[in-house]
């Protein structure tokens, strides 16, 4: 099987990272088409590329060079698609795509397919963690995608039993190996586990990991204001992000207010409430969705984006991957945002996971 790409697509994909199989001749009609060696034709991503027809191939009379029809790459991999996902600037000057794809509870055996599909659909930001057990699948999908490393934003996390001594250094080495990367874009302390009283040490190790170039940005997850204040005051280094449970029923205003005042970006995990309560049937969500001809999930994701939160909804279904990305062509009104703001009971009862002080 032969493939050809326009020079712009080649630049986007990084030809040297693609699979190698055959070289292709350049059909005369396609003066701008370049040839590219195509590796590993039997691998899943190659099959995926093969199945997709985008654009108009040259008339067969123009490519009688023994070539098969040339299917251009699927549209999400085409030049310019990333422009539709906003990038936020972190307090260390690096950028992060505001919408990504999270892989919590994506089974390890399914992860390469799911992440490859997400990349195909257009996601460029992947959120995983050592404890999810699926970093290998993320790494395999990244390698298979042929997408330039600089176009991807990859996050992983330090698990709770690796805070002591030099364990964080061993943990990041293992994660990078599984992800097949030299550096992650963001490395997070997954939970503070305050009962062990070791999260300041873990944060100091994260600073070393960043300084060693193994993580471009560092941050924390599930840290509440007392944890945040302590790591900042004891190390002098403010995390780039805090990734916390956040959705309409649990808006964590104390943490978000602190983060805004301190220049820390908020990543909202469980942005769809993990499907654990009837978020989509709630009147403010349903009304906002109806008003814009969108699904309730899209209305909720739009609420997050307009509040300035970073989100990475998880789904193992391609149609939902597409649905969750299709949130950049409408704006909720101030009233619609205020109605969703009012959904938090304010007493913590909307939380779908454990309180961070109770996670060990
Ligand atoms: N730092 C932490 O402690 C922490 C904790 C939890 C999660 N996270 C991160 O945050 C990411 C997202 O959170 P999450 O996975 O817990 O929950 P979530 O994204 O809020 O919800 C995922 C659930 O919603 C369903 N879903 C997805 N899109 C949908 C749509 N358009 N319509 C209806 N249902 C939809 C999924 O089902 P299907 O898969 O069947 O579509 C799945 O059951 C995780 O994957 C992980 O990366 C971090």
From TrEMBL:
PROSITE patterns linked to this entry: ALDOKETO_REDUCTASE_1
InterPro entries referenced in this protein's UniProt entry, alphabetically: AKR, Aldo/ket_reductase_CS, NAD(P)_OxRdtase_dom_sf, NADP_OxRdtase_dom
Pfam families per the UniProt record, alphabetical: Aldo_ket_red (PF00248)
Superkingdom as given in the UniProt entry: Bacteria
Key words, A-Z: NADP, Oxidoreductase
Domain NADP-dependent oxidoreductase: 105-343
Family that this chain belongs to: Belongs to the aldo/keto reductase family.
Annotated PANTHER family: 2,5-DIKETO-D-GLUCONIC ACID REDUCTASE, NADP-DEPENDENT OXIDOREDUCTASE DOMAIN-CONTAINING PROTEIN
Full protein name: Aldo/keto reductase
Organism expressing this protein natively: Microbacterium deminutum
């Amino acid at each position: 099987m032969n493939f050809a790409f326009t020079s712009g697509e080649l630049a986007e994909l990084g030809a040297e990272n693609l699979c190698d199989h055959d070289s292709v001749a350049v059909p005369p009609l396609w003066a701008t088409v370049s040839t590219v060696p195509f590796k590993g034709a039997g691998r899943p991503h190659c099959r995926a590329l093969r199945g997709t027809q985008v654009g108009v191939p040259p008339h067969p009379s123009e490519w009688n060079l023994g070539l098969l029809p040339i299917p251009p790459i699927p549209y999400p991999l085409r030049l310019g698609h990333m422009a539709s996902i906003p990038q936020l600037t972190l307090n260390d000057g690096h950028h992060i795509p505001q919408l990504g794809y999270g892989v919590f509870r994506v089974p390890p055996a399914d992860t390469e397919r799911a992440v490859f599909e997400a990349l195909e659909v257009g996601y460029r930001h992947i959120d995983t963690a050592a404890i999810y057990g699926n970093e290998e699948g993320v790494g395999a999908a990244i390698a298979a995608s042929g997408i330039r490393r600089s176009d991807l934003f990859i996050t992983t996390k330090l698990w709770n039993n690796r805070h002591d001594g030099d364990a964080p250094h061993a943990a990041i080495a293992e994660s990078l190996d599984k992800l097949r990367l030299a550096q992650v874009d963001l490395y997070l302390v997954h939970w503070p586990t305050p009962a062990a009283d070791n999260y300041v040490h873990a944060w100091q190790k994260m600073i070393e990991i960043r300084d060693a170039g193994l993580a471009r940005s560092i941050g924390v997850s599930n840290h509440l204001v007392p944890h945040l204040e302590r790591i900042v005051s004891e190390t002098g280094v403010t995390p780039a992000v805090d990734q916390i449970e956040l959705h309409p029923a649990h808006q964590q205003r104390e943490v978000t207010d602190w983060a805004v005042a301190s220049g820390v970006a908020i990543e909202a995990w469980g942005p769809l409430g993990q499907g654990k309560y009837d978020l989509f049937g709630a009147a403010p969500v349903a009304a906002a969705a109806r008003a814009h001809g969108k699904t309730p999930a899209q209305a909720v994701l739009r609420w997050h984006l307009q509040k300035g939160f970073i989100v990475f909804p998880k789904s193992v279904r391609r149609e939902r991957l597409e649905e969750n990305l299709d949130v950049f062509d409408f704006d909720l009104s101030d009233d619609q945002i205020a109605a969703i703001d009012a959904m938090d009971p304010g007493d913590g009862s909307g939380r779908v996971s454990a309180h961070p002080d109770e996670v060990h």
